[in-house]
Batch of 3 targets.
Target 1
Amino acid sequence: MKKVVFTVLVLGLFAACQSVEKTEKPENLIPEDKMIEVLTDLAKLDASRSYNETSFSKRDVKIKKLIYAKYGIDSTQFAKSSNYYAEDFNVNQRLYDSVRVRLERDKARVDALIKKEDSLKNAKKQAIIKKSEKLSKKENN
């Protein structure tokens, strides 16, 4: 039993003493502000894809490629930059906090537009109802 415990401790010590190699900073590292924009668009893509999967599969559109083209990057550059930023918890947290804030801001904007559109529809309905009530009163008189 002592040998097993000793062996486990020694193996644990070796595992703990291994050097952790950091990812080198890519030459074409995507700047943080641009990375936030890319991540925001990718989050919107994932949300829309999960909302209507069949629409995406029917059209067979490679939207990620379009997003990469929009920002002048490729998938390799994105992957390397993403891995580089992921190694530093604070930087990664800052990136994703910024993405979350942007998504929340965009959602609030969309919600306000939907509310305004609903108000206009309701106002039109009320106007039609009032007009039809006036017409029926005239017909009854």
Note: The helical segments are 2-17, 32-51, 53-59, 63-71, 75-87, 89-140.
Target 2
Amino acid sequence: MAEAVATSGGAIVFAGGTVIVALLALAVAQIPFVTS
């Protein structure tokens, strides 16, 4: 049970980090949708 929770937690953190990096990349690229 603990291993399953740790695995899912890591996946969530990884997914969250990926989304943050993508948003930062869009912001740096000055995409109108992001900056508006």
Note: Residues 2-28 form the longest helix (27 residues).
Target 3
Amino acid sequence: MRVTIVRDDGVVGVDGVFRRIDLSALPPGVRAVQWDGMQGHVEYDDVANTRLDTLSEFQWAVDRWLAAPFPFAPSGAGDGV
């Protein structure tokens, strides 16, 4: 399972399906999380990225994604760019 969490857009993507999620529980300074199913990284506002060996710290975001009602197309999707 691939997971993308983007704070500024307020979205979580799982296997390419994005949903708006309340991300207020993200730790301060975390801008984004990328997970490829085996490993990933956390992107911060003011410091270097750090490696992730487990998604457990961000499982709550996946759980909220599962509970969200409708997927949506990210802005720019389908515009031929």
Note: The mean pLDDT is 90.
